[in-house]
Amino acid sequence: PAAAVAAALIALPIGAVSLRTGGAYFIMITLAFSQMLYFVTIAFADYGGEDGLSMWSRNTAAIGGLGLDTGDDLVFHWICVALLGLWLGIAHRISGSRYGLVLAAARDDERRLRALGRSPYGLRLAAFVTAAAVAGVAGALNANLIGFVSPTPLAWTTSGELMVMVVLGGAATPAGAVAGAAIMVVLEEMLGRWTEHWAAILGPMLVLAAIFNRGGVTGTFARAWSRIRRRGRP
């Protein structure tokens, strides 16, 4: 919870500034804030600076009074799976709610939404802060997994990698981000075993996927399923 709250509090002023723009300007401003935070964190030498800090043990987890041994890799794995499933369920409910529908309208046609008397700014800021809170939890889990905390994830390259995952999986649904991350990790692992120059192969593959596979993997499956259903109708 502390990681989620901290990430949300940091994201609030960043979103308040960056969401007043759009498109490439929004991307550049958020990347600038990310780089600023990166250089701020490496300046704190007492906390490891650029070298980071090692974690001697994982954080404890207590759910409903039941203590869970996060030092056990299997237990920690299922905690991560449970939290992922919980967030996917929440995201699915949000997308079908009134707020989710208005947020989708802000994405698809901002002018029409403004004409109806609704400002997309507050909606986007709430979504931005919520996403940051989820990212904070994910970061805390990753730190516990590898036993190390460093400012490296604040670099712009991490943002680029996450964007590639979303584009690859499909940005229209929460499941798209999960699918994109899974595909990216599997491709890196498989190509890494084959050659040390795996990035030179993965890059063109991702470019082709972005060009010819609009909507990502989940979008492709959704279109295929729609065709199958239409053919099955009398």
Automatic annotation (TrEMBL):
Keyword check for Phosphoprotein: no
Protein name stated in the entry: Branched-chain amino acid ABC transporter permease
CDD domains in the record: TM_PBP1_LivM_like (cd06581)
Keywords (A to Z) from UniProt: Cell membrane, Membrane, Transmembrane, Transmembrane helix
Domain of life: Bacteria
Primary site of residence: membrane
Molecular functions per Gene Ontology: branched-chain amino acid transmembrane transporter activity
Species for this entry: Tistrella mobilis
Recorded GO CC terms: plasma membrane
Record's bilayer topology term: Multi-pass membrane protein
InterPro entries: ABC_transp_permease, LivM-like
Transmembrane segments: 26-48, 121-142, 162-186, 198-217
Keyword Lipoprotein attributed: no
Entries under Pfam families matching the protein: BPD_transp_2 (PF02653)
Subcellular location: Cell membrane
